[in-house]
Amino acid sequence: MPAYARTTSHPPAKLSGLTSGFGRREFLTMATAGTAAAAISVTIAALDPATALGAPAMTGNATPQPSSASDLKRELRAMWIASVANIDWPSTSGLDAATQQAEFLHWLDVAEENRLNAVFVQVRPTADAFYESPYEPWSQYLTGTQGQDPGYDPLGFMVEEAHKRNIELHAWFNPYRVSMQTDPAQLVADHPARQHPDWVWAYGGKLYFDPGIPEAQEHIQQAILHAVRNYDIDGVHFDDYFYPYPVAGQVLPDAATYEQYGAGFDTIEDWRRGNVDRFVETMSVRIKATKPWVKFGISPFGIWRNAGTDPLGSDTGGSESYDDQFADTRKWVLEGWLDYINPQIYWQIGLAVADYAALVPWWAEVAAQSGTQLYVGEALYKMTSGVFTDPAELTNHLDLCREVSRDVGPIHGNVYYSAKHIPVDAQGGMSKVVEDHYQYPALMPLMPHLPADPVVTPVLANARRVRDGIRLHLADIGTKAARATAFAVYRVSGTADFVDTDDPANLVGTFRSAGGRVQSWLDTSAEAGTDYTYVVTALDRVWNETDPSQPRTTS
C-alpha cells in the first residue's frame, strides 16, 4: 500500500442539501445568485473526483484524462505575497508610489514566468488596510506611518494589473490581529482598537481583537466586506491565524468575555471554537450575498487533529488547529462554508510527526465529502532555509498530489509561500516544479456552484504572422450583457481540422478581454517558419469555457 493510502475512512458528511452531494454552500450561493434550479445537475457532477480534475466546458463537453499525468489543463497555481513586516511587498515601508508599483509588477512578472495563475496578496495585515477604508487606517507597511495615504490606491492597482495578465487576485485578510506590538498608544488615535479598548487584549507580544465580542466580529467583517463591495477581487482569503498560537506560560485573557457571552457552551474551549465557526459561516454567507462569484477560502495550519487525539484525525503527531487556534477546520469543509481549503502542509514526505504523504490524502478525503476544492500550501521557504534537503522535494509533492487525486479525492492546485523565494529558486526546487508540472499554462479549476455568465463561442477571424510572432484577431459576438471576461488560446503544429482543447499541451495561454467586440492577441512563442492551427474559447469570470471557435491556420 502506498504511503498516501494509509488513512482512516471517515463516514460521509451530513449535509443539508436538495439531494445527495448537494451541500449547503452550493444552495446558499445559488440561492443568492438566483440560479439554484438551473445549476443543480452541474453541481452534482462537480463533486465527482474525475470530473473535478478535468472539469467540463460550460457547454457540457466531456473532458478525457489529460495526455500527460504531470500537466493538468485546470489547476490553481498560486503564491502568497505577504505584506506584514514587509515580508514580500512592499520590500520596505516608506517607498514612493512608483517604486511600490514597480515592485508589485515584478511579482506579477515572477508569477507569469513560473506559469502561475493566481496571487494571494495580504491587504489587511494588522487591522490596517492596503485600500482606503472607512473602518481602519492605511497600513504602516506602505508608508511607514499608520494612517498616511500612500498617494495611490494599492488594492485597485493590484487588481487592475493582475487582471491585465488574467491572473486571479485573492485579497488576503488577517481577521483578529491588531498590532505586532502591545502598546495601543502606538496606533493612530482613531484606530478602532483605541476607540474600543474593551474589544482588545494583548497576548504573546501582540494585540488582538477579542473574537468573543460580537461587536468586534461585526467590525472585522464590515472592514472586509467593504473591500469586497468596492474592488473587483476574485477571492477573500484567510490564513491560519484565528486565536493566536499558544505561548508557553501565558493564558488567553478572555475569561470575562466567556462569562458574559458563553451561555450554551460547556467549556471555554468549545465557546472559542463556536466564535470562530460563527465568524467563518457568517463571512461565507455575507460574501456570497455581496458578490456571489467571489471565492472564499482559508489556509489553516496543516493538522486538524492527530489520530491519537481523535480517531477522525490524521496519522500525525504535531500541533492541532482544533485545540491550539480553536479552528475546527474539518467542520468548515464538511459544512460547505468554503469554496476552497488551502491547508499549510509545510512538511516533507516521510517526516514522522507530520508526514506530507499522510496529510495530503487525509485532507483530500475530507474535502471530497463536500466538494470543497483542496489546494495544498507548500513551504517553498524551506528550500531556501535548507530544511528541505532534497532538490526534488516540491516536485515530489506534486507527483504525490496527482496520485492522491486519482485514488482518494481531487486536489485542485498548490500555493507557494512565499513570493520572494520563487526567484531565489533555492536548490533549483521551483524550477523543477515548473519543468515537471507547469510546462504549459493552466486554466483555473471550475467551481460550478458559482454563477455562470452566458458567454458565447468567439469567432476567430485570422491568425497572421507578424514580425514578433503570430497575431490573432477574434470577435466576441455575445450581447453586451454576455461579453467574455477572458479567452483561452489553443494551438497545434501544421494544418488541422481539429484542435483538442482537452489536451493541456495544446493550451498556449489566456488573455483578458480588452472590452468590446474586437480582440487581438500576439503569440510570441510561435516559432518562425512553422505553420500552426489555432482555436479560441471564451471564458466567463469564474472560468467557465465555451466550445472552441472554428480553427484557423496561420497565413
Please describe what this structure looks like:
The protein is an alpha/beta fold and about 550 residues long. It is built from 17 helices and 18 strands. The strands form 4 sheets. An 8-stranded parallel β-barrel has the order 1-2-3-7-8-9-10-11, surrounded by 4 helices. It has a 4-stranded antiparallel β-sheet with strand order 15-14-17-18, with no helix packed on it. A 3-stranded antiparallel β-sheet has the order 4-6-5, with no helix packed on it. Helix 1 packs parallel to helix 10. The N terminus is likely disordered. One of its GO terms (molecular function) is hydrolase activity. Keywords: Hydrolase, Signal. This is Glycoside hydrolase family 10 protein.
